[in-house]
Amino acid sequence: MTSPASASLSGDQAQRPAFRWLLGVQVLATTVFGVVPLLAPGLFATVTGYSGDDQLVYRFAGAGATGYFVAAVLALAWRSSWHELRLALVATFSFTAVAAVGCAWSLLEGDRHWVVFVVLLAAIAFALLAGYWLRADSGPDTGPGQPISGVWLAVIAIATIAAAVFGLVGLLPASATGPLAGLQGTDGWIYRMSGAACFGYAPAGLLALMLRDYRRMRVQNLAGMTFNATAAAAAWLAAFTGGGGLIAPVVAVAASVFAILLALLDRRYAR
User: Fold this and answer.
1) Distant-in-sequence, close-in-space partners of 177: CB < 8 Å, separation ≥ 6
2) 228 backbone φψ class: left, alpha, beta (φ>0; ψ -120 to 50)
3) How do residues 225-263 score in pLDDT, each as one tens digit?
4) Which residue, of 47, 71, 138, 211, is most buried by count of CB atoms within 10 Å of its CB?
5) pLDDT digits (tens, 9 = 90+) for 153-196
6) Which among 209, 194, 193, 102 has a CA at the least distance from the CA of 161?
7) 68 three-state secondary structure
8) Measured distance CA(5)–CA(124) in Å, rounded
9) Half-sphere exposure of residue 148, counting CA atoms within 13 Å on the CB side?
10) Dist. CA 72–CA 60, nearest whole Å
11) Are 194 and 42 contacting, i.e. CB atoms less than 8 angstroms apart?
């Protein structure tokens, strides 16, 4: 499939080798910290030295990061223009900036697992690089895409609010929020990474509401759809097999609805 914008557009920073290398590194990083905890949370916990309690939270963190994996893969495959990727980079910046804060918070609480240090450094680097490209903001105007209106704006608004709320709650001490949701509340760092990954979608959603242009939000919408679909699958699995506490059925239903609506949004506006 080819992006609506041509890869040969001159002056488009998204086509520069340095930017495409950044996307490639994002694919690798989100494979390790997204796909792996999503599919094998026990293995991820063992390698990183955590208890592995609350595997649903590991899967949620993986689901959130897998959305960023999909965004980077699509950007590389479609050779998307800068204006088609700006929202996705806003999400990456927000995710990594908040993840860095979450890692620093965990360190201040005495968490000395090696992965906290690694992710802290990686998150700071990604946030700085994403911030650099966002500030450069260089790319030709590719023209407007399908304008979003009506009920679809409400869908984006509700999804954005949900991402912000669940993201911020995930940053709170797991020892307090975990038991309230029927979970163990151990391994606080993974709770914070889950919250950071979820929160990253909120600023991008807010910008999408301001732009109301589907061409400029399609990559990010497909990332959000992936996040919700994989989170829903993880939550349904936990709801039926046990270990998901009170939160599993709530997320299962909500994420399923969002995944379907975002898929319908793409079907409606992708031209």
Assistant:
1) 169, 170, 185, 191
2) alpha
3) 999 999 999 999 999 998 888 999 999 999 999 999 999
4) 71
5) 999 999 999 999 999 999 999 999 999 999 999 999 999 999 99
6) 209
7) helix
8) 31
9) 29
10) 19
11) no
Nearest to 203 by CA among 145, 123, 130, 259: 130
**Which residues does residue 213 pair with via DSSP β-bridges, in sequence order?**
147
Place of tokens 């965004």: 71
Q: Which residues contact 150 (CB under 8 A, 6 or more apart)?
A: none
The Cα-based distances of 153 to 95, 108, 157, 158, 160 in angstroms read: 23, 40, 6, 9, 10
On whether the CB atoms of residues 202 and 168 are closer than 8 A, the answer is no
Specify which residues 147 forms β-bridges with. Answer: 213
Q: Look up residue 136 and give its two tokens.
A: 């450069």
Residue with tokens 């990332």: 223
> Do residues 248 and 238 lie in contact, with contact meaning Cβ atoms separated by under 8 Å?
yes
Q: What is the pTM of this model?
A: 0.93
Note the residue count of the chain.
271
Separation in Å, CA 37 to CA 8, 30, 149: 37, 10, 36
